[in-house]
Design brief:
The chain is built from one helix and nine strands, in the order αβββββββββ. The protein has one helix at residues 4-18; strands spanning 44-47, 50-54, 58-60, 62-65, 79-82, 88-91, 94-97, 101-109, 112-121.
């Protein structure tokens, strides 16, 4: 019975090594996760590139992608934000003017970022 134990122990150690996460099947070190793709500069844009609104007005910015058609719809939704939410807020491309000033409306898609300039004038002031 004692001669069976070393065989069992060796089998268990071999199994644990074979199932180890520290190496891939080829024996190299841990594989890094895939990198977020980056798209060609200028291919992802916010339209229009500038806009002027009065306090309280809303406006919808849109995005366009003019690169590889195989990438359309990847990797997911566009994420929007305003560089100064005291001037304007944005959700899904819909901007609401809050107070006079200027801000950048930024759209992020995958590894690409595009922006537009939004100028907000107080109601009653000349644009």
């Amino acid at each position: 019975m004692r001669t069976v134990r070393p065989i069992v122990y060796a089998s268990v150690v071999g199994l644990l090594l074979a199932c180890s996460d520290s190496t891939d099947p080829s024996g190299s070190s841990i594989v890094s996760p895939p990198k977020v793709p980056t798209y060609p500069a200028g291919a992802f844009q916010v339209s229009p590139s500038t806009a002027t609104l009065q306090n309280g007005q809303t406006f919808r910015f849109t995005t366009t992608y003019s690169g590889n058609p195989a990438l359309l719809g990847l990797p997911g939704d566009v994420v929007w934000h305003s560089s100064d939410e005291k001037v304007a807020t944005v959700s899904g491309g819909l901007v609401r003017a809050v107070s006079g000033g200027q801000t950048q409306i930024v759209a992020v898609w995958g590894g690409s970022q595009a922006q537009a300039i939004l100028r907000v004038v107080d109601s009653g002031k000349e644009q």
